């Protein structure tokens, strides 16, 4: 057990280097953005980032994932593999600029159509270059590349927004330049300096890479619908300002999701290792119980402090965004748990199971968005997202029972879910009595998970004694 936990912890730390640092930089830049950008301007840049992130996998046929996977093979020709990706990106660049007339016809994007295209293109090249590093298992360099990208975005945004008052254009140029710097760094570290010297395309490799990459596109589409379609629908129904508020509210669960994803990425390696062990169910359940305790305590704690936190975190005109955070925090819980359960599909290479749950969840999300956003506004998107992920979680639990028996509805966990839901309602009670009740509910959550808290405290004390 000790060796298992050490392996899981080591991988968690490796992924944390790249994931957590970059998201923390983004998270702490929000006060700058909310002070210097109006809700409408922030909504526009969030929409543009969403569009770019969505277009790249489809216009490049998801080639970045193909690069990463094929570079992991023994005797892989990294130059050949990455070269195929870059050639694909060159063709995709033309396709991206062909979309410019569409952007010019869109009210929110018409003034920024060129920058939308340039941002999307540079994002694609940076993703391909970073995928090459992951494929070569240069994980430290990959993490450094992500950190370079985030630091460059932060520094350039401070310069463009604060110094030159460039607003939306400055925000986008910060991302464009950061993407270029990241691409150069990643290609250099991936030994791709002479990538096209004597380069010849291997048609068989191209076919294999495209077959693999195209197979992942439906799943990528479904997860995009679950994660990003809310922003487009909010903008369409309620306008860019409403999307700006939603984007700020989303920063809280995004940070929490980054923390959790650092663990679930590491868990996927442990799950593969444990697939053939006799006690895989017992070990997986123990890890799952700990994960549930952490995400529910984090979520309850965030709801407890959400209003005072937003008072100093964002500019006054954005303060109302706290009202949309509770439902998104509930979404975070079930995103994390469904991702954990979904690693079972990876272990057993069951892509169909992945796809079925994602399709059903995405369809449910779209239908609920169309119904709820016009009726109850921004919180309709939050409710649709939460319900969609709850559905995906329970679908995956049931569907993966053939591989792994997880106990997901024990009394402790049900009590935790109930308290999270109760706190998500109580938080709207705007006086000291309401805050007092909210605090008591949080204490109840601590009591529910007291055994886990005590075990973690004892473990930390033991490590401290060993260190001393």
Automatic annotation (TrEMBL):
Query: GO cellular-component terms in the record?
Result: plasma membrane
**Keyword annotations:** Cell membrane, Membrane, Transmembrane, Transmembrane helix
Q: What is the lineage of its organism?
A: Bacteria, Bacillati, Bacillota, Clostridia, Lachnospirales
Q: Per its record, how is this protein called by name?
A: Polysaccharide biosynthesis protein
Keyword Membrane in annotation: yes
Question: Known InterPro entries for this protein?
Answer: Poly_Biosynth_Transport, Polysacc_synth
Q: Per UniProt, what is the membrane topology?
A: Multi-pass membrane protein
Question: Which compartments is it annotated to reside in?
Answer: Cell membrane
Source organism: Blautia hansenii (Ruminococcus hansenii)
Domain of life the protein comes from:
Bacteria
Transmembrane segments annotated in the record for this chain: 12-30, 42-61, 81-100, 112-131, 143-164, 170-188, 209-226, 290-310, 322-347, 378-394, 414-429, 435-453
């Amino acid at each position: 057990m000790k060796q298992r936990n050490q392996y899981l912890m080591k991988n968690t730390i490796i992924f944390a280097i790249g994931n957590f640092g970059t998201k923390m930089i983004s998270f702490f830049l929000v006060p700058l953005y909310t002070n210097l950008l109006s809700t409408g301007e922030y909504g526009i840049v969030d929409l543009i980032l969403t569009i770019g992130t969505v277009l790249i996998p489809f216009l490049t046929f998801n080639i970045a994932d193909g690069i990463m996977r094929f570079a992991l093979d023994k005797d892989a020709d990294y130059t050949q593999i990455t070269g195929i990706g870059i050639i694909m990106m060159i063709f995709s660049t033309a396709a991206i600029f062909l979309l410019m007339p569409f952007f010019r016809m869109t009210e929110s994007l018409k003034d920024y159509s060129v920058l939308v295209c340039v941002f999307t293109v540079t994002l694609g090249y940076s993703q391909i270059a970073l995928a090459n590093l992951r494929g070569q298992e240069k994980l430290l360099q990959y993490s450094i590349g992500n950190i370079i990208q985030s630091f460059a975005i932060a520094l350039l945004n401070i310069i463009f927004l604060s110094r030159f008052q460039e607003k939306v254009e400055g925000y986008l140029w910060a991302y464009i330049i950061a993407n270029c710097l990241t691409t150069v760094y990643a290609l250099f570290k991936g030994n791709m300096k002479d990538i096209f010297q004597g380069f010849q395309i291997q048609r068989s490799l191209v076919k294999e890479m495209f077959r693999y990459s195209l197979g992942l596109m439906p799943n990528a589409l479904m997860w995009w619908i679950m994660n990003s379609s809310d922003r487009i629908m909010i903008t369409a129904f309620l306008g860019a300002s409403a999307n700006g508020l939603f984007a700020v509210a989303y920063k809280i669960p995004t940070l929490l999701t980054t923390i959790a994803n650092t663990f679930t990425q590491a868990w996927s390696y442990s799950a593969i290792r444990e697939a053939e062990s006799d006690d895989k169910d017992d070990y997986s359940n123990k890890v799952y119980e700990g994960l549930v305790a952490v995400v529910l305590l984090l979520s309850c704690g965030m709801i407890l402090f959400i209003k005072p936190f937003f008072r100093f975190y964002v500019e006054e005109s954005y303060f109302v965004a706290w009202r949309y955070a509770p439902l998104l925090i509930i979404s975070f819980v079930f995103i994390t748990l469904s991702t954990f359960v979904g690693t079972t599909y990876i272990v057993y290479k069951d892509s169909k199971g992945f796809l079925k749950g994602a399709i059903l969840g995405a369809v449910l999300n779209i239908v609920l968005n169309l119904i709820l956003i016009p009726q109850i506004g921004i919180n309709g998107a939050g409710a649709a997202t939460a319900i969609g992920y709850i559905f995906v979680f329970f679908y995956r639990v049931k569907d993966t029972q053939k591989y792994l028996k997880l106990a997901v509805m024990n009394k402790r966990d049900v009590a935790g879910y109930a308290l999270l839901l109760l706190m998500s309602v109580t938080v709207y009670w705007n006086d000291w009595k309401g805050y007092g009740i909210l605090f008591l509910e949080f204490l109840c959550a601590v009591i529910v998970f007291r055994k886990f808290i005590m075990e973690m405290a004892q473990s930390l004390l033991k490590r401290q004694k060993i260190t001393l």
